[in-house]
Amino acid sequence: QSVLTQPPSVSGAPGQRVTISCTASSSNIGAGYDVHWYQQLPGTAPKLLIYGNSNRPSGVPDRFSGSKSGTSASLAITGLQAEDEADYYCQSYDSSLSAPYVFGTGTKVTVL
Amino acid sequence: EVQLVESGGGLVKPGGSLRLSCAASGFTFTNAWMSWVRQAPGKGLEWVGRLKSKTDGGTTDYAAPVKGRFTISRDDSKNTLYLQMNSLKTEDTAVYYCTTDTGSDYGRKFEYWGQGTLVTVSS
């Protein structure tokens, strides 16, 4: 049972900026645990997109950026492109659950 | 290049068993913590369990829905991770991903993923 809440969907025209929120609780993000983001293109495995709140792995375009504040985190995509149409998940650690890892509910990004 | 290749998925009846394998290459498997993550059809990601490296104790942790039914193990001589699934339920139907589990206590993440293997539990 996920305790990281994301909007089910966001959309934007090519070139626009979209943001995805990841809202949590004081036992995970609010407790200082890092947030990571994954991109899942249709029919493929998830891929690490942002780690440690705001860091991009090698090869990830700089139009993807992450931030964290208090009990929430955000993923921003600037200069939206058709190939960015995918599902996006946040992930953190939770000290209050029996499972140490928790994923967000997922957000479908649609490029209009 | 890091590669994780899962195998062993398939159709199994409720109450049955299945063992998944994950062949790893391109990194020092012996030192790696590994996790399994699953995704039910049309649903989000769910962490299943993890196995620490032997250096870090070699212990396992599991999500509540699979605890007592699933067992993660490793053969470092073969660079292979396993997921033994017993007493399978229809709700275990999902694509199962093998992942590397890296980072610190405050920031563990799933850095590399396999392509996934589909497990279908149905009568």
Task: Give a verbal description of the structure.
The complex is a heterodimer of chains A (112) and B (123). Chain A is mainly beta and 112 residues long. Chain A is 0% helix and 42% strand. In chain A, strands 1, 3, 4, 7, 8 and 9 form a 6-stranded mixed beta sheet that branches. In chain A, strand 3 and strand 4 (47-50) form a beta hairpin. Chain A is globular. The termini of chain A are far apart. The model of chain A has no long low-confidence stretch (mean pLDDT 91). Chain B is mainly β and 123 residues long. Chain B contains no helices and 11 strands. Chain B is 0% helix and 52% strand. The model of chain B has no long low-confidence stretch (mean pLDDT 96).
Summarize the structure.
The complex is a heterodimer of chains A (112) and B (123). Chain A is an all-beta fold and 112 residues long. Chain A contains no helices and 9 strands.
Helix-strand blueprint:
The complex is a heterodimer of chains A (112) and B (123).
Chain A lengths: L8 E4 L5 E6 L12 E5 L6 E4 L13 E6 L2 E6 L8 E8 L7 E3 L3 E5 L1
Parallel strand pairs in A: 1-9
Antiparallel strand pairs in A: 2-6, 3-4, 3-7, 5-6, 7-8, 7-9
Chain B lengths: L2 E5 L2 E3 L5 E8 L7 E7 L5 E7 L8 E3 L7 E6 L4 E6 L8 E9 L6 E5 L3 E5 L2
Parallel strand pairs in B: 2-11
Antiparallel strand pairs in B: 1-3, 3-8, 4-5, 4-9, 5-6, 7-8, 9-10, 9-11
Major interchain interface with per-chain residue totals: A-B, 26 and 25 residues
Shape of chain A: globular
Structure class of chain B: mainly beta
Largest sheet of chain B: 7 strands, mixed
Along the chain, the helix and strand elements of chain B come as EEEEEEEEEEE
